[in-house]
Amino acid sequence: MKYNPITQDLYTDTGTFIKQLHCPLAKKWDGLAVTSTAMAKVCSACNRAVYDTAKLSDSEMLTMLDKAPGTCLKVDFEQPNLTITYANHR
Predict the structure, then answer these.
(1) End-to-end alpha carbon distance in the chain
(2) Mind giving me the DSSP string for 12-23?
(3) pTM value?
(4) pLDDT beneath 50, residues of the chain
(5) What is the phi/psi pair of residue 20, to 5°?
(6) Residue 80 falls within a domain, yes or no?
């Protein structure tokens, strides 16, 4: 996947727009509540699941967001499946 830190846009490796990442609460991953799955944690401020994109493929994210567009995603600049880009894909 590709992430533009200026626009906060997340794309698949082929350039398909996934989601603009923006959380006004700016919670840290380590501060979120653990769930029964390693793929997600829960934000106690908004009570929503936050999914770790390092554990998801592009197609899994697209499927998840197709079913629930408001799904929260976590991106770590150091994760192996992420490329930082400043290109505007839209």
Answers:
(1) 15
(2) -TT--EEEE---
(3) 0.85
(4) none
(5) -90, 125
(6) yes
